Amino acid sequence: MICYRFATYATPLRTVPAALPARYSRGDEDEPTQYLALHPLGPLAELMRNADLRSPDQVRAVQTRTWALEVPLDDLPEIGFDTADQLDISAEDLVADDRSACQQLAAELRGQVPGIVVPSAALPATRNVVLFGPRVAAPYLTEPVSALDIPASITAEHARPLFSLLDIVRFVGDPHPALEAWQQGVSFSFVEPEWALTRERRTETRTQRIPYT
Q: According to the model, what pLDDT value does residue 213 have?
């Protein structure tokens, strides 16, 4: 399955743990945790949510690398709103601003499974992939020689999100539309943001007309 990630380093994958906590890692683990998205817009949505980028000016300043990775998902259990309680976590916890329940779940699953597929907190109705343990990026069109090798390639340099992504990112403090729909027993589908460049150009034009002071 093709997954997506942003990373400004020379590689999109880690062999050593990160010191900063994230949704499924506390920052004190002995192994790294890899975060990927199953929707191409997922990584930039996560970036916008985590950095609280809520305005076109903030989005315009983003310059990051985006990556595509081919990741086998057959051995990764999927944890969704319907199945969360089977693992002693609530559906709400999977996308909550408080990440402690997700961190606890990851601590229990490490060593048992190579990773999990979970709902995205930032881009409702899409899914993320969390891999436990080190992984190494390999050239995209090569056959992996071990389970640690992940075919990967850069898809863009100095990339930034579309302005229209501002309309659908679920920021900290906001309700999660997919969770709310599930709680009400109705379906919720992801709708692609506007692809047209009209909004991009209109925003750029307005900015250019602002005089310097």
A: 37
Model pLDDT for residues 4-53, shown as the tens digit of each residue? 999 999 999 999 999 999 999 999 999 999 999 999 999 999 999 999 99
Cβ neighbours, 10 Å, residue 118: 23
Q: Which residues, 6+ apart, have CB-to-CB distance to 157 below 8 Å?
A: 65
What's the predicted TM-score (pTM) here?
Answer: 0.92
What Å distances lie between residue 209 and 49, 55, 156, 201, 213, CA to CA? 29, 17, 29, 12, 12
First to last CA, the chain: 51
Question: Given a cut of 60, is residue 61 above it in pLDDT?
Answer: yes
